[in-house]
Amino acid sequence: MISIVAPTYFDEECIAELLSRITTVMEATGEEYEVVIVDDGSEDRTVALVLEEIRRRPRVRLVELGHNQGKAAALTAGATYAKGDLVLFMDPDLQDPPESIPDLVAKAREGFDLVLTIREAKADGLLNRITSSVFWWFLRRFTGLPLPEGLGTMRIATREFVDRFLQYREANRFIEGLFLHVGLRRAIVKVPHHARYAGRTKFDFKRKLALAIDATVSFSDAPLKAAVHWGVALTAMALLLAVGIITTRVLFVNFQLGWPSLITAILFGFGLNLLFLGILGVYIGKIYGEVKQRPLFAVRQVHNMDLPA
Ligand code: UDP
Ligand code: MG
């Protein structure tokens, strides 16, 4: 069986079209399948619409999370409830079209445990494209992960892969990074990319920045090491300056030491101190998030499913 997992968050305009297109595609393949919609605390009509669809489409299931917990938590919930031998993840906004599902399934059956997608031509607006490329540059630079350019959100994984993924218990979850960490055999297929079917993106610049920081903090300690490098460099510079000033004053000229330069030095030092204190704070915040050992997601209710909530 193939499970199709889609996290939703304020996607009421997309639900009907999404399920109708998935049904058309999947019925044509003749495969056994289920659709697991995970609602990440939408406050529009998303849940009501999915429930309505379930009455007509018995293969659709719904996991209702208790409140907005973020896409990574929603995907993890979907992976937990999906029962298929292959689990396909996709966004409900139809940017990566359901018509590509058979390509991914075929690739997975060639013997790959994770099939990622690359978007052929990005159909996002200019601003979204710019923030996306800054985002991916930042991620590659700081996480050191081999994240392919133009990575899509549609992907398919085998049961074995999903089971291994579910063993990752960290609260701060950068899904793309975890997926690369799982290892196993990976392949990439190209898929066409479309504009959002309806509604607005939830990943604006602010959210992308937050995600990039989360990903960096969970995959790299480079910012912490940067503090050491800056500390060493500045201390060395200060020592050199001190030696320079003392020798000049003692051996050559008797000059007045100016306070503007002092203020500048102090401001710079304090600023840098505060910056790295802040970076420490970010890591400590993440550690705090981990030690609480909360469940990775909180389910309110499941629908059309024999698994408990
Ligand atoms: N999403 C979610 N929880 C959130 C934010 C987003 O489950 O807190 C899901 C939502 O269903 C959305 C998908 O993530 O359809 C992808 O987000 P979006 O299409 O807004 O991002 P973009 O494709 O523009 O990067
Ligand atoms: Mg989208």
Commentary on this structure:
- By secondary structure, the chain is an alpha/beta fold.
- Helices cover 51% and strands 15% of the residues.
- An 8-stranded mixed sheet has the order 7-5-6-4-1-2-3-8, sandwiched between helices.
- Magnesium ion binds at residues 91, 93, 95, 196, 201.
Q: Categorize the overall geometry.
A: elongated
Q: What is the terminal-to-terminal distance?
A: 22 Å
Report the C-alpha radius of gyration, rounded: 25 Å
Give the uncertain stretches in residue-range form: none
Any chance you could write out the topology, listing elements then pairs?
Layout: E1 2-8, H1 15-29, E2 33-39, H2 46-56, E3 60-65, H3 71-81, E4 86-89, H4 101-109, E5 114-119, H5 126-143, E6 155-158, H6 159-165, H7 175-181, E7 186-191, H8 205-219, H9 222-252, H10 259-291, E8 299-303
Observed structural traits:
binds uridine-5'-diphosphate; binds magnesium ion; alpha/beta; eight-stranded mixed β-sheet; 15% strand; 309 residues
Describe this structure in a few short sentences.
With 309 residues, this protein is of the alpha/beta class. The chain has 10 helices and 8 strands.
